[in-house]
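Lab notebook, bench 4. Continuing the backlog of folding jobs that were queued last week. Each job is logged with the same field layout so the records can be merged later without manual cleanup. Today's entry covers Sodium, potassium, lithium and rubidium/H(+) antiporter, a 837-residue chain. Filled in by technician R.K.

JOB TYPE: sequence-to-structure
TARGET: Sodium, potassium, lithium and rubidium/H(+) antiporter
LENGTH: 837
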Amino acid sequence: MDIVLITTVIASLFLVIGAAEPLAARLRLPYSVILAAIGILIGSGATFFLRTELTDALNPISEAILGLPIRSNVFLYVFLPTLLFQATLGMNLRRMLDDWVPILVLAVVAVVVATFSIGYALASVSTLPLAVCLLIGAIVSTTDPSAVVSIFRSISAPRRLARIIEGESLLNDAAAIALFGLFMGFVMLGVPDPNLGDALARFPLLIAGGALTGWLAARLAVWIMALFARHELAQISISVALPYLAYIGAEQSIGASGVIAVVVAGLTLNLTGPGRLPPVAWANLREVWDVLAHWAGALIFILAALLIPRLLEEVRIEDFLLIGVVVLAAIAARVVILFGLLPLLALLRVSPPVERPYRVAILWGGLRGAVTLALALAVTESFRVPVEVKRVVGIVATGFTLFTLIVQGTTLRTVIGWLGLDRLSPIDHALSRQVVAVALQTVREDVARTTENYELTHDIVRSEAKRFGERLEDAVKTAEDSAEILDRDRVTLGLIALAGHERDTILSRMREQTISSRMSEQVLSDADRLIEGARSGGRSGYQRATRRSVSYGRTFRAAVVLNNRFGLSATLVRMTADRFELLLSQRLVLRDLGIFIDGRIRRIHGRRVADLLHELLARRTEAVETALEGLRLQYPGYAEELERRFIRRTALRLEEREYTAMREDGLIGAEVFTALMQDLAARRAAAEYRPRLDIALQRVELVRQFPLFADLDERALKRLGRVLQTRYINAGEIMVRRDSAVRSVFFIASGAVELESAGQTWRLGRGEMFGQLTILMQKPRRVEVRAIAPSTLLMLDEDRFRRLLKRSIALQEAVRSSAQKRGIEPEGLVSSAQEAA
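JOB STATUS: finished
OUTPUT FIELD FOLLOWS
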């Protein structure tokens, strides 16, 4: 075939891609629906002109279109890795973790349920072998997110809904294609009724092998990209090679799932890339992948749609019955998951609840697309599959895809509107009216100054001022005449605005590189969580999100267990350093929020709301300072290194600003400016490297700060530092329950706890201990100990405590003092402890 003709056809397809998006926006239809319609029209037109006797002038173009090398391998090896990889790079993984249960249920459980539901439903109404029916079920179980997400973004639908659908669509591709590979093997071998136990037993091996391949490939790629820190184009080129090598390596080398390998490689790069690559390089890398994925997604849809007329050429009347069965079984399976399993998991507190309108939107938004057509094409191309099976698989998969695109795709926007997901809530409506009134007042002041500066014609100024004043008056009247906003709602609106400004401040700090690239994604994720917490739970939701941002998570505790029990400290070292830097970044951002409260929120919501937000901000700042002080007490030298690093980054930012100003003022030329910026970039790359934290060395320093151990010599301090275990606790967590057996003494390194016994309470802070009286009295005491701030405790077992008590006069005095405060005779306690020791 003429290469010029093929190039012309492909270039023309890019013109179609460019015109499809504005056409979809004008027709208010999903972008993928327009692409599919255009592809069908092109394919049908090419077939018509090639077979008609009306004219032969268009035969070369028709032959070029129908002769394009459209094979399933092109979709699976060229386009699919691009789409999956870009989707993982664009995901906010930390926010996805908030909804990991519903995402996994929809992506894995729903795919398995749909595959078997469709398979057994088809087997009951047709003469097809069960293996073929299950193969069809796997083919049509994968959903296409592009149509749904594009609509959600165009109408500013809830972010959480878009996240759930994106996560589901990304992961269910992997699950469906893995199942497709299993059942395709049975069909090619001619096994009519596969052993499902053996099939499902191979499933974890496919996933594990793919995951390992993807992780190793991504780690190697990140290591190489970090070596090329000054060569941005080289880094982007390596990222382009990564998904394809991971896919081919998993599929061809070890027989695992290539889709899983690409997904894991993308997730690994998403998590590690921001911390290893310069911020500008990472941003440009993601922009390149956005463009590649846009082209790949559009081309795969158009090229797959070109095949639809060919796949439907041999359709029969009875095939419509099979398509109807697939439609009903697929919807029924999705209903069972969305309205049966998810509410049950929420009731059992295994999963966060998913609101009913969200579930309806997810149900109707389960569109199928190019991946389904590509898998069907793979079946029709196989010479080891019977001809009749090829025909049925192609027709049923294509018919079901067309149903979802034509019926669900064209009505999806209407369904979303019916559910109210495209409308502002009453609170947001009230906020918009308040904001317009305040904004117009500010604009009026600025316009007045502008007219004075430019000495405009008085009559023109007066007429325009009159028009603007009428609009301002209407806006103020609308805001005042609207239904009164409750104080509670005003606080919620103020918190949403405050969290939004915090996010904007973080983005500004990231551009200035004051916040390191390693921490940028996590700080942004915390800000998003604050916004959604305020939206869903108001003041209490915002406070829960703030507590979570400074608390010790399960992953951190797991790292502590690995360090304490197995001596594996690498994870704890990294997470402790991350926590240190995160808290420093939060403190930097929080200091700018007070001005926003006084300058903006006070004008919109009044003094009472502003004062309350100041109070909440003060509490949050105090919590961050407390957590940071605890870390600083544990690792004083490391805190100093991080602060020095922050000062160096700030100085580099100011230095860059000065060079830019000199270049704009003409004080230095382009050559000098380029040389200065290259030198600056090298020093900035060096400043990105974070100093290493040595937790073993720092613990001795921490123990030395306790007044309780002031009389111990250096050797005893080092020995004590080795045997003490660290425990991190969150505010509200109970360490000791009433009537429980206490086997350790706790020393408070940072934070504070509250003891409650017989209606009395005591509060203990840094440098104090608890648990010693229960041990020395040798009987349970009705005492409950609860943390009232994120705290770090050092634990010493009973035997070592008794031996230490015998040697330390300072510790004996501390025991006497604590016993006297609680009305217990101290002398007997200490003497009996010394005798027991």
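OBSERVATION: Residues 487-635 form one domain.
SIGNED: R.K.
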